[in-house]
UniProtKB/TrEMBL annotation:
Alphabetical UniProt keywords: Amino-acid transport, ATP-binding, Cell membrane, Membrane, Nucleotide-binding, Transport
Membrane topology: Peripheral membrane protein
Name of this protein: ATP-binding protein
Domain ABC transporter: 9-253
Stored InterPro entries: AAA+_ATPase, ABC_ATPase_HisP-typ, ABC_transporter-like_ATP-bd, ABC_transporter-like_CS, MetN_ABC_transporter-like, P-loop_NTPase
Subcellular location: Cell membrane
A Pfam family it matches: ABC_tran
Taxonomic source organism: Microbispora siamensis
């Protein structure tokens, strides 16, 4: 952990809903630089919605959400909040890598092209340079030997590792993972978690929504339990898991452990 650095995420009483139905009911959540923060909680509790708010894909309707030093969606200028333009949203999102349950790779491109694509088209990296860097990122996730393969020639675990390499190629300051191993066959889960563990060891700031309790215990610096659109409890993973304070947390843990 990078003590003294400004927090990467400070959510204070964050509220959000879809068409009048409230989904986030006042989320308080902080992530320090270099921390791995894991989020667990029942389906429908707002975990994915919260991640989408973090990278500006959903609007925050109340409270304050500061990510990478910015109030997401607004800039304070002349004493007033000015909403971001689409260009400002895009520039902000470039700093945040996102990995989903479904890998969403481009089916007609090789692993290497999938990884090099963002840097070339979004960052303007020269193609040769982007391919060299993409190869390094594929190597980082253990897939240098598979760079030429199309997604359908790779296992689910390998595809997810390509998706992680693709996110890393944009040099993000924050990585968000939304149940990255939930769609994988059980025997492929560990290779993805190992890559994530490596990233954590390198000091990447990460928020990981997961049902992998052992990963949260071993790799997480913090663990937050979401239910009904709020953080019910939060703390060091070992402490939360060994002695949850709330009945909701106990009930959830006994259902997944
Ligand atoms: P989780 O990731 O914890 O399972 P979600 O954030 O996906 O929870 O969903 C929280 C609630 O918001 C659920 O009740 C879900 O049905 C609802 N929801 C999610 N996305 C949408 C959407 N695009 N439109 C309307 N309701 C949505
Ligand atoms: Mg979800």
């Amino acid at each position: 952990m990078n003590a003294g650095a400004a927090p990467v995420v400070v959510a204070t009483d964050v509220r959000m809903g879809y068409g009048g139905v409230q989904v986030l009911n006042g989320v308080d959540f902080t992530v320090a630089s270099g921390e791995v923060s894991c989020i667990i909680g029942p389906s429908g509790s707002g975990k994915s919605t919260f991640l989408r708010c973090l990278n500006g894909l959903e609007p925050v309707l109340g409270g304050s959400l500061r990510v990478l030093g910015e109030e997401v969606g607004h800039t304070l200028r002349d004493g007033r909040y000015h909403p971001w333009t689409p260009k400002q949203f895009a520039a902000f999102r470039r700093n945040i890598g996102m990995v989903f349950q479904r890998f969403n790779l481009f089916a007609h491109q090789s692993a290497l092209e999938n990884v090099a694509c963002g840097p070339v088209h979004v960052l303007g990296t020269p193609p040769d340079r982007a391919r060299t860097l993409a190869m390094e990122h594929l190597d980082r996730v253990g897939l240098a030997d598979h760079a030429h393969k199309r997604p359908h020639q790779l296992s689910g675990g390998q595809q997810q590792r390509v998706a992680i390499a693709r996110a890393l190629a944009m040099n993000p300051a924050l990585m968000l993972f939304d149940e990255p191993t939930s769609a994988l066959d059980p025997e492929l889960v560990d290779e993805v978690l190992e890559v994530m563990k490596g990233l954590a060891a390198e000091g990447m700031t990460m928020i990981v929504v997961t049902h992998e309790i052992a990963f949260a215990r071993e790799v997480g610096d913090r663990l937050a339990f979401f239910a009904d659109g709020v953080v019910v409890e939060e703390g060091r993973p070992r402490e939360v898991l060994a002695a949850p304070e709330h009945e909701r947390t106990r009930a959830f843990l006994s259902s997944v452990l």
